[in-house]
UniProtKB/TrEMBL annotation:
UniProt-listed Gene3D superfamilies: Nucleic acid-binding proteins, Winged helix-like DNA-binding domain superfamily/Winged helix DNA-binding domain
InterPro entries attached to this UniProt entry: CvfB_fam, CvfB_S1_2nd, CvfB_S1_3rd, CvfB_S1_st, CvfB_WH, NA-bd_OB-fold, WH-like_DNA-bd_sf
Membrane-spanning residues: none
Domain Conserved virulence factor B third S1 positions: 143-213
Protein name: S1-like domain-containing RNA-binding protein
Record domain Conserved virulence factor B-like winged helix: where: 226-282
One Pfam family cited in the UniProt record for this chain: S1_2
Domain Conserved virulence factor B second S1: 74-134
Domain Conserved virulence factor B first S1: 7-64
Family per record: Belongs to the CvfB family.
Amino acid sequence: MDNLQAGTVVTLDVDRDVEFGYFLTNGEEDVLLHHNEMTEGFDPDQPVTVFLFQDHQGRLAATMTIPFIVMGKYEWAEVVEVRDDLGVFVNIGISKDILVSKDDLPAIYSLWPEVGDRLFVTLKTDRRGRLFGKLAVEDIIRGVAAKATRKDFNKNVTGWAYRLLKVGTFILTIENYIGFIHESQRKEEPRLGQKVEGRIVDVKEDGSVNVSLLGRKQETMGEDADEILAYMDSRGGKMPFWDKSTPEDILDRFDMSKASFKRALGKLMKEGVVYQEEGWTYRKE
């Protein structure tokens, strides 16, 4: 008979009742089903289906609440706690949160998930039988992925980051599309597990998509114009930048490309809000 193992769902017989609950058995091993872990329908005279996990003292325990993630089954789990020394804890639907070890998280702490982020995980045990969350690898993601079509081009999508690379970020969308966000298509690198919203800018032959987190030109133009005006207002309504400023100076000051800067500045000039003179831009009275 197999040994009782954390992370699995088993059906056991009731062996005996104790002060805190009932001990269940497979004929060789016992495990405690605490009163707090019992649900309606418990009958001490009938076999009980339970999920096995370690309690807060590290002892194997049972619950009649079956989580939405078990060994070998992957699902999204919400991050509920971050511990610098351990990693992050996720909620799988039982009273005990499950640790995703810091060894499986990004080397850069700022890219760790935060509370409220979501990770696509299953369960695993270490050599000591302790239960941990296991991040999905690429093959698992591709196994659940759906294929986008050309009709999805330019659609808005929402997804969660599951793989971080220097050149970009991979996400899995609500539709289960695999999306890639090139570093040029984002203002900052998303955290692992972070929810992002963007639009599909290309649909590949394999059904995966390229996604941009940058707004459409007409959307970003207004945001960039507001940023330029805010900067000018902080300097008394003028700034030492105009449409012939270098791309490097514009990027350093405004964190935007020269093309975006010129579009926003042109919008403000067309609306009669600003004017340029000898390398400076001024707000009109």
